[in-house]
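REVIEWER CHECKLIST
Item 1: Sequence provided? yes
Item 2: Single chain? yes
Item 3: Sequence as submitted:
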Amino acid sequence: MNTIPFSTSSPTGWILAAVFGLIFGVLLQKGGVTNYNVIVNLFRFRDWTVLRIMLTAILVGGIGVFGMMQFGWLEGYHIKDLNLPGLLLGGCLFGIGMVLYGYCPGTGVAAIATGSVHALVGFGGMLFGGIAYALSYGALKESLFTHGAFGKVRLTETLPLPEWTLWIVLVGISLLVFRLLRGPKLQEEAS
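Item 4: Structure as written out by the authors:
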């Protein structure tokens, strides 16, 4: 296996993490998703900026990880167990929090860096939610997380297709979605 020439927990790894984190925050700000109204208007079906950025991040990140696997830079995927009740509960709580807060965690931190006071206040809610989850994890694991648990499952293991085929399909669907949502605002396209 080829390895990356430095440890991610080395000083070089920490510096690179800080640099890439800074670049990520700047790109979020330049993309407009540190603006409360952009996120809220996604849920009002008026602004598709967040959807396009998230789809781009999924594609770039996924293809990047797939490429690193092909080069032998990664030993394997670190897959979490598929647990449907946990995913549904977590998705609902995350969605409610995102609508109320007006940011997802990454855009919230980037908004704090731009001087947003309400993003800073909402960040306290994120911390509270994270602590509440950590404290309740034991009870949730014994009750909620035991039902609907499918173990470590990947789409490539359930469909009889090679992984590169699924990436081609995902990229094709993404390009179609980008085409359908090409304008930043649904209202402007309808006019």
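Item 5: Key structural point noted by reviewer: Residues 11-190 form one domain.
Item 6: Recommendation: ____
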